Every structure is written in structure tokens, then in C-alpha cells.
């Protein structure tokens, strides 16, 4: 994941490095980590970051009393299961705090959600530019953008807030159709076993839960998007309308998913989430790829600062009984990051 501020419902994640300039390091699932080249070791540590989304996540509503934000615990588990640690980014963090947290991570993860404007959008836009700048400066600093995260990246790259189209793909499991099997090399799918790759195109192993997306035609017709992204897979919604389900940047370690790779193993609130062994393997392979990319970051932040900012300093809230789609969420009361259940 990546280092990102917590945002009201839309989410960003960041991963901090576990040690300071050590000879060996481990990956941390957080989604923003800038790095200046220290001597890279054979093992590297990655710290991803996630950005919080507006709202408490449990009730499905914005908090009535505070500037609450949340990060679903499934994104945290997704990153941790691949061997990384997470630093949460609050979308309403002061800019100085946001930048400080981003200096502690090795990658960023933009989560799903619903917020497409206001402070959340501005924070995502700022973090996205930092990710590109960090890569341009020589650090390998990956971004994973999931569902809403992909939609926001489309809006930012195209500079068009209306670039996304309507689709009917809520609570739907789907296949992933590769545009060409040559696109697999060097992508998130590169290390998938051949039999699992084949099943992706025949079995419904990808969980979809969105009302918006972008068609291959619209992406290709937009010069900014077609110059930035290579389409890896497409999927069909309930009306057989085709949308881009996975895309990867040509020149940056940026991978975007309209589907939810984290849900297969870590969410149970939606009836159509696939939980088969194959589906769980999809989650694990995608998570492993993200953290393998984060390990390439040369960022080695001070261990004490990392420990003070890890998600371990907060407690998740069980909200599965509410039937809102998430089993557990981390709820933050305001930019201070204090957990509502502490």
C-alpha cells in the first residue's frame, strides 16, 4: 500500500520502512514512500501507506459530530499478508504532517470509497503528484489505486472530472479478460501460475463493487490517459457493458484496479465476494506484487518515527453486524489521528 492521509471514505494507504538505512529491510504496506538511494541491500523493507476516507465506515454515513474518517481493515490485512507494515494517512492531516508521513513509506495505496471532490480529492491529487515526482527523482515508489482510487487517478491524469462513465457492477463477481497476453510480462499478473491466469478469464474471481468506471474506448480516445496507461484487462458489467478493470502506467510503478483484490480474503459483508481457494490466491498474488514493488524503494526512514506512526497504534472496530460491506474499519476522529474507540 502506500502512504496516504486518511480520507473520509475514499482510502489511501502507505507503507513505512521498518528500519533506518540498514543493510536489510522489510516492506511495509503503506502507500507513499519517497526514497533517496542509500546502498540497496538484497532484502528491502517496505512501508506502505493508506489514506483514510471521510465517514466512520461502520454506519456508512459521515460522522454527525466530528471530521471522522476511516480505513477498512481489509486493506491493512492485504498489505500485511504480503510482509509489509502500514502507516495511515489522514486526508485532513495538515500538509506538514502529510509530507512527514510520506517520507516514512515505500509505497502508497488509494482505497475504494465514494468521495470525489473537496479536500479528499485535493489530498489525493497532491499525493499522486508526489508519487510521480519521487519516481522522477530516482526512487522506485509504487502506487496501487483500487476502485475509487482508479477513478480519481483517471480524473487527475485526464484533468476531466467527468471522464468516468456509469456502469452497473455493484456486488458482482466477474472474470478478467486480458487485452493481449503479451501485457502480462512486467505487470501485476506476471508471477501468477499459468492455470490461475487461465481461470481469471473463465471463472468469476474478481470482486466488483462500483457504479462508475471507464470504457476502453474512452480511455484510448483521451490522449492524456492513453499516453499514461496501458490497459491490462477488461470486464463486463451486469448489462454487458465493457470497462477497464486493470491498467498499468507505461513509465511509472502505478497499477490501477477497478475491482477489489483485497476483498476475496478479508471481507465477508457482500454476498458475491468469491472465497474459493483460487480467489484467495488472486488476493495473495496481487498483494505480493505490490509489496515486491515497495521493496524496490531506497527509502530508509528512522525506525522510531516509523514505529510512532504505524497502524498498530490504532484499534479496528468490528462493524460486520451493520451489513455495510466492511467487517472491520479503523475510524479516526480527526486529523490528529486519534481512534474513536481508544
TrEMBL record:
Composition-biased stretches (Low complexity): 14-35
Organism superkingdom: Eukaryota
Residue ranges of the region described as Disordered: 1-63
Chief location of this protein within or outside the cell: secreted
The protein's Enzyme Commission number: 3.4.19.9
Enzyme class per UniProt: hydrolase
Pfam families named in the record: Peptidase_C26
Family matches, as InterPro entries: Class_I_gatase-like, Pept_C26_g-glut_hydrolase, Peptidase_C26
A GO biological process held by the record: tetrahydrofolylpolyglutamate metabolic process
Family: Belongs to the peptidase C26 family.
Protein name: folate gamma-glutamyl hydrolase
Species in which this protein is naturally found: Ananas comosus var. bracteatus
